[in-house]
Amino acid sequence: MKKILVVATGGTIASTPHQDGLAPGLTIDQLARYFEHSQDVSVDFHVLMNKDSTNMQPEDWLRLARVIDENQNRYDSFIITHGTDTMAYTASALSYLLNGLNKTIVITGSQVPVSFKRTDAKKNIKDALTFAQKADLPGVFIVFDGKAILGTRAIKLRTKSYDAFESVNFPYIADIADKHVRIHFRMEAERTAVPKHIGICPDVFLLRVFPGLSPAFFEFLQNHVKGLIIESFGNGGLPFENRDLVAGVEKLVRQGIPVIITTQCLEEGQNMELYEVGKRVADAGGITAGDMNTEAIVAKLMWVLAQTSDPAVVKKMIQTPIAHDLDYV
């Protein structure tokens, strides 16, 4: 008999109407009624927190990781019910925090509360149970709208539609329908083994570049962050004329603050060597993130900085594929 632990964290799936709008309110007994399963599966429930995922913090990722780590020998797989707004961040974070754990970890939720007459929650719950029971794939996955997406590759693109999430720069792992799992992509084992480390350093900042951004902003950052992620233009370029942002990157790097460069473009990654505007950033010490998505970069940098502040080691770890987060395209 396969044993599954459902860890509830709140989110829309468990929300009910309140005076100020929808908020998590279902008890675990009420939520458990919707987890219909066959007799050859044992499902236990654990309420870890009951919050809108907008309020989810890195410290909550640690709580989730520890619950799963502490129960890894008692259960075959895990399901986390979670709000959709920060689900992709949590999926990425758990992919690093629980790296190497040979268990299937499924995160699901819904766009409409499970107690509503018209809802996507019941299907997502059924699909999550099916995937957790039958997929037999180690790792962290988001199961939503009949699809399984690798945790480090999921992005929420829609606020209302049932197909809220998409897999970016990586194939969908599987389709789930009528209690059957159809695997589309089986991942090869990664060549580099990275030791598991359950720790987070949240002192990072995410900066989205726009025309007119003042270089003076970097003066503020140098005293307030331990790592910076820049969503640049196109292939990784930053302006160096008139408002010189490249000089700001160089100054932070000289102070030992790692600067990770990604792109505002969702698909196809970046090549900082292609244009002068990118080559200057690379020469200033900017660390390319390849085809990683922003959610994964944020979680990965927090996880790396909890282990080291050595810029060379940070660069090596960021650019080492973990949980298939990097350089597929």
TrEMBL record:
This enzyme's EC code(s): 3.5.1.1
Task: Give the L-asparaginase N-terminal domain ranges.
Answer: 3-184
Q: Name one GO molecular function term.
A: asparaginase activity
In its keyword annotation, does this UniProt entry include Hydrolase?
yes
The UniProt annotation places substrate binding at: S53, T84, D85
Single GO biological process annotation from the record: amino acid metabolic process
Keywords in UniProt for this one? Hydrolase
* Signal peptide (from-to): none
Active site, UniProt feature: T12
Q: Where is the Asparaginase/glutaminase C-terminal domain?
A: 203-317
Q: Which PROSITE patterns match?
A: ASN_GLN_ASE_1, ASN_GLN_ASE_3
For the protein in the UniProt heading, the enzyme class is hydrolase
Q: In this entry, which stretches build a coiled coil?
A: none
Instruction: Give the family from UniProt.
Output: Belongs to the asparaginase 1 family.
Name this protein carries in UniProt? asparaginase
Recorded source organism is: Sporolactobacillus inulinus CASD
- Identify the taxonomic lineage of the organism of origin: Bacteria, Bacillati, Bacillota, Bacilli, Bacillales
